[in-house]
Amino acid sequence: MRWELLFALVCPFVNAYSECPNVLSFDDRRNDTNTLRFVQYNVEWLFMDYYEPSDCPGNGCPWVNQSEAEIHMNKVSEVIKELNPDIINFCEIESCDELHIIQDKINDKTYMPYLKQGTDTSTGQNVGMLTRIDPLIDLYRTEERYDYPITGSKCGYTGTPGTTGVSKHYITEFKLNGIHIVFISAHLLAIPTDPKRCAEREAQASVLQKIIYDYIYKEFEVIMFGDFNDFDKEVFDVNNNIPISNVLDILKGYEGEYKGQYTLYNLAETMGQNERYSDWWDSDNNCNTYSQDDYSMIDHILVTNNLREKVSDVFIYHNYDEYCGKYDSDHYPVVID
């Protein structure tokens, strides 16, 4: 019997298009309601069902068949079980069904899965979360779009102007220990050094900036997180990567339409620079994992000052090796307590 058919029989709920954005309960299942561990984790093509447009599992992603996808799922689940977060945000997850599979593998029913399907039909990737604290409102998206290149862009893009939205994101609200917080998750367009992608990411950041500003105007605290596929010129990573874009500055309120009207802080500021790497990429295509050029920090957690003052620890979990042919993610989890 083919593996795919066997998987379909034992996991009949798997569907590449499933989502679970609706809040069905309002519980707090933390062991200690006075503390919170939050994790941002790009889990690298966490797909268990075949997604045809991207051929994954298959030749279009790192996992060439269902067996490899299962090994990868097990690796990711082991990391989550060890970190034991109260809320974990996933980038590059296929659907709500993968969230259920993780929940089963770590054998922890205190988590609830939430995912709002995005519009990246090319890759089929989404962002979603497992949480022990239920949101106050259903996960939602904005379909607002922004023209690029934005005014004052230094990306160097000279092609035809265009417009873009944020294909992979969700927005929801929590009330934690009396504090109203908006959670904004986003996975922005890849390739930090490509001029067109740079221009498009700045437009994506401009869409998100309005959401941040609107919530701050309503006196919410803000946590903005995800794989931004860009560097922070204020908080240098291990490789001193300097962005060609203003993406982080726009999100933090330093640039853009709402420049100077709010400020977000990158929690990586509290880490030593030698620990600031969340992503591995074989930049020289020679599988030399000792090259410093292969590491960067493109996953970020940005917060308002009130939340910044409540953080007791920030670190990036580096407890697995990156190399060609590995089954762990090519990103490391970013953890805040």
Would you kindly provide a written description of the structure presented here, covering whatever features stand out?
It is a single chain. With 337 residues, the chain is an alpha+beta fold. The protein has helices at 3-10, 66-83, 96-106, 195-217, 247-252, 305-308, and strands at 38-46, 87-93, 112-115, 126-131, 146-148, 162-164, 169-176, 179-187, 221-227, 265-266, 279-280, 295-296, 299-303, 314-316, 334-336. It contains 6 helices and 15 strands. A 6-stranded mixed beta sheet has the order 3-4-2-1-15-14, with helices on one face. A 5-stranded mixed beta sheet has the order 7-8-9-13-10. Strands 5-6 form a two-stranded antiparallel ribbon. The N and C termini lie far apart (46 Å). Mean pLDDT is 94; it is low at 1-16.
The rounded Rg comes to: 19 Å
Helix share bin:
10-25%
Q: Strand pairing plus helix content: what structural class?
A: alpha+beta
* N-to-C SSE string, H for helix and E for strand: HEHEHEEEEEEHEHEEEEHEE
Q: Low-confidence spans: pLDDT under 50, at least 5 residues?
A: 1-16
Report the biggest beta sheet as strand number plus sense, adding barrel if it closes: 6 strands, mixed
Beta-strand portion reads 15-25%
Shape type? globular
Count of helical stretches: 6
Largest sheet: spatial strand order = 3-4-2-1-15-14
Distance between the termini: 46 Å
Number of strands: 15
Q: What's the overall average pLDDT, rounded?
A: 94
Question: How is the topology of this model organized?
Answer:
Blueprint: H1 3-10, E1 38-46, H2 66-83, E2 87-93, H3 96-106, E3 112-115, E4 126-131, E5 146-148, E6 162-164, E7 169-176, E8 179-187, H4 195-217, E9 221-227, H5 247-252, E10 265-266, E11 279-280, E12 295-296, E13 299-303, H6 305-308, E14 314-316, E15 334-336
Parallel strand pairs: 1-2, 8-9
Antiparallel strand pairs: 1-15, 2-4, 3-4, 5-6, 7-8, 9-13, 10-13, 11-12, 14-15
Helix pairs in contact: 2-3
